[in-house]
């Protein structure tokens, strides 16, 4: 039996893997937010009782969204290889993982956003309509601004989900914390690396979750309520 | 001014509006009243341009606004300030931010916007709450902010849909005062949809009674109260038959409605004096419609010239509603 990996090596493994994970998750979250929020807005606008109800568009968009959400990430990872190559010029490494991560997260974000926007009370939306506001203005100043705290929380949920997905990045050589735990920790029976990674993931996700909760609270004006 | 012409609207075969025709003079307040399901809300939503009528027209200063689209529709919406039913403020915006919303939609630049918001907060008496969020305001204050918001873009018509339905009597007063002030100070035409006759009593010049999607009564409140059979008079005037009276004690028994200080104060004593009759108030009472005192009394008269006295009261401006005991009674 070989001796345990020195702690200094464990830490440098963790630092490197954390960098890869944050890179993959960070970039794909930004992309998923930029593209997923409009999908959610569009779903809500075209929904029954929305600002621009359109059953046909809503159904098609909803179908595509749910199809995307039902796809296991590991399948997406390998299925999108050619697309990934087209976009980032290669099909392995951390950067290559960003494409399937973002693609998987867009419908996820889309549905979350739609659910949140549908919570804005109809009286409030109609009041804005009667002020002569354009649809764009209502989306920005009413739907999104009124739900901002919930939207920030939803992005937090997305980040945590993407950290989970990114554990499979090793399949195409993306590295990251999940890959470290599986290849170095599990497959090479390195318990110290395995459990260190598990503990560190717990800390990392807790801190991220906490950060988003704080940000959501900061964005919520209702907290000033004196009653 | 705003006119509603022959408006119809049905939902899944059920007629909510069956040809509603109304008009509101510039600078006056019309109360639209009626029982639940009479079509009040549908009418309000049509006037607010949230619902398109099946047929008929809604004219603001002569222009039909029911068939507009796109930017013309948005411009028309700014002509009609709406105080929606229920909580309608943006909870993530301050009171001032909420009032500013229509000005942003209208593209009013920042400095002018702030000036205008200041004026409106002053009008509704909430200058000190400019930076408060809706959750920090009481129900009445939120409703006054909603009125300020509705008035922000200088509409010619103000529509209030059940503006007092969720409020206690005291706060109701403050909201009604604000609506009245909007009419008085800005000359805006006000249309209040309400189930509460108290709103009509306090601020309405005109009233329209809606029943089953039709206007069954429409006119000046002070005219309608003099009309014996009108729904408005029975809803707003003091009851005359609370106490049973001994009719045989009088030669004549009649109900009269007196409108205004002069009539309420002087008409009856003068009639008694002129015709030498004994004139007793045996029922009814005094109330106030807006600023005007209005009385409905049940009179018991004794004396030879009782009929002449009643006739004179009618000619002098009192509405003699019915002779409970008169010449017909004698003949029978």
From TrEMBL, chain A:
It is a multi-pass membrane protein. It holds the Pfam family BPD_transp_1. Residues 18-216 form the ABC transmembrane type-1 domain. Belongs to the binding-protein-dependent transport system permease family. PROSITE patterns: ABC_TM1. The chain crosses the membrane at residues 22-45, 57-80, 86-109, 150-173, 193-213. This is D-methionine transport system permease protein. GO terms for cellular component: plasma membrane. Keywords: Cell membrane, Membrane, Transmembrane, Transmembrane helix, Transport. It is found in: Cell membrane. GO terms for biological process: D-methionine transmembrane transport. Gene3D superfamilies: MetI-like. Its main location: membrane. The keyword Transmembrane applies.
Automatic annotation (TrEMBL), chain B:
It comes from the Bacteria. The keyword Nucleotide-binding applies. Pfam families: ABC_tran, NIL. Keywords: Amino-acid transport, ATP-binding, Cell membrane, Membrane, Nucleotide-binding, Translocase, Transport. Gene3D superfamilies: P-loop containing nucleotide triphosphate hydrolases. Residues 2-237 form the ABC transporter domain. One of its GO terms (biological process) is amino acid transport. The keyword Translocase applies. GO terms for molecular function: ATP binding; ATP hydrolysis activity. This is D-methionine transport system ATP-binding protein. It comes from Lentzea fradiae.
């Amino acid at each position: 039996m070989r001796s345990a990996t020195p702690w200094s090596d464990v830490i440098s493994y963790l630092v490197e893997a954390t960098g890869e994970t944050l890179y993959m998750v960070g970039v794909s979250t930004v992309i998923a937010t930029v593209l997923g929020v409009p999908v959610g807005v569009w779903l809500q606008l075209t929904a029954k009782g929305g600002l621009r109800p359109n059953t046909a568009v809503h159904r098609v968009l909803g179908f595509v969204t749910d199809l995307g959400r039902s796809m296991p990430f590991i399948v997406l990872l390998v299925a999108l290889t050619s697309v990934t190559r087209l976009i980032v010029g290669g099909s392995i490494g951390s950067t290559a993982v960003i494409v399937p991560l973002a693609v998987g997260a867009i419908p996820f974000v889309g549905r979350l956003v739609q659910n949140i926007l549908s919570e804005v009370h109809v009286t409030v939306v109609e009041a804005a309509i009667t002020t002569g506001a354009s649809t764009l203005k209502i989306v920005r100043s009413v739907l999104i601004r009124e739900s901002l705290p919930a939207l920030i929380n939803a992005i937090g949920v997305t980040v945590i989900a993407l950290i989970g997905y990114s554990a499979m990045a090793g399949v195409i050589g993306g590295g990251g914390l999940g890959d470290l735990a599986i290849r170095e920790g599990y497959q090479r029976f390195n318990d110290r690396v395995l459990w260190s990674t598990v503990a560190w993931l717990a800390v990392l996700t807790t801190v991220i979750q906490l950060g988003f909760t704080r940000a959501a609270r900061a964005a919520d004006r209702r907290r000033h309520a004196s009653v | 001014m705003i006119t509603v012409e022959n408006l119809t609207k049905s939902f899944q075969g059920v007629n909510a509006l069956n040809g509603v025709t109304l008009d509101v003079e510039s600078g006056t307040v019309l109360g639209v009243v009626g029982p639940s399901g009479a079509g009040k809300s549908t009418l309000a939503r049509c006037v607010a341009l949230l619902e398109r009528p099946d047929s008929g027209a809604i004219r603001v200063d002569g222009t039909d606004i029911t068939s507009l689209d796109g930017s013309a529709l948005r411009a028309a919406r700014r002509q009609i300030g709406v105080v929606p039913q229920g909580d309608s403020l943006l909870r993530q915006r301050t009171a001032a931010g909420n009032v500013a919303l229509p000005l942003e939609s209208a593209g009013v630049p920042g400095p002018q916007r702030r000036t205008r918001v200041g004026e409106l907060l002053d009008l509704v008496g909430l200058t000190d709450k400019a930076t408060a969020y809706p959750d920090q305001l009481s129900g009445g204050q939120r409703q006054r902010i909603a009125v300020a918001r509705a008035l922000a873009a200088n509409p010619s018509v103000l529509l209030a849909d059940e503006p007092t339905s969720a409020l206690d009597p005291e706060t109701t007063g403050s909201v009604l005062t604000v609506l009245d002030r909007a009419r008085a100070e800005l000359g805006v035409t006000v249309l209040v949809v309400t189930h509460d006759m108290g709103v009509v009593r306090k601020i309405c010049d005109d009233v329209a009674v809606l029943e089953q999607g039709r206007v069954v009564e429409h006119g000046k409140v002070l005219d309608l109260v003099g009309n014996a059979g009108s729904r408005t008079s029975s809803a707003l005037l003091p009851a005359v038959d609370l106490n049973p009276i001994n009719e045989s004690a009088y030669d004549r028994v009649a109900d009269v409605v007196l409108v205004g200080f002069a009539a309420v104060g002087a008409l009856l004593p003068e009639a008694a004096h002129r015709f030498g009759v004994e004139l007793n108030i045996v029922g009814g009472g005094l109330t106030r419609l807006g600023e005007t005192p209005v009385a409905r009394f049940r009179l018991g008269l004794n004396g030879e010239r009782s009929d002449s006295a009643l006739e004179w009261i009618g000619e002098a401006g009192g509405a003699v509603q019915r002779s409970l005991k008169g010449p017909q009674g004698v003949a029978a």
